[in-house]
Amino acid sequence: MPLFIRLLLTLVALASSPGLQAGDPPRPFSRIQAWAGTSLLAEAHGNSAVTAYEYDLDAPAAVSHIVVKPTRGVSGTFSIEARAVTVMRCDYEGPHLELDSWKQGLSAPRPLRRQGQRFLVDAGILSMPMPAFPHYTSRELRRAIRDAYGETGLASTDETQTCAPFLRGHRFTVRHQGAVVHTLLIYQPGGC
Q1: What is the model's pTM?
Q2: Which of the two residues, 109 and 18, has the higher pLDDT score?
């Protein structure tokens, strides 16, 4: 996927995420980090609700663990659950199109095992089967394609011929004392 599109997806995710406002209580974490062995993949600070990361095509390893560093003085337990995410992908000649902001299929949540501040992403999490994609009509898909390009109207039916659901990656929901405090989106490489 071209760098411009990657940056745009991240900006869209950040813009749609509520940040901290004056008077809001501070987030209960100072940092959340996603690791692949000893390589840092993504890091979130307490200034947004969502962090998105897309693996590089040359990534040596998948996410192995997530570290939650509590804000000083914060007590209470953290937990993380993982869900596999399916999105619609259209394999056009040239760049591919992932409809990340359209419908998504989600697996049942699975808790990550905790070791201190580390939450382990084991092989069972990474090999979760692709969840079913929600029902959609041809018209909805045609509109979603146009929306993805910032256009109005409907795409042609020919443009939908190469579209099919695919396993996009995983959503990790971080909770503090049961309340959702952050979401990490760790996605497979996108289009060409």
Answers
A1: 0.80
A2: 109
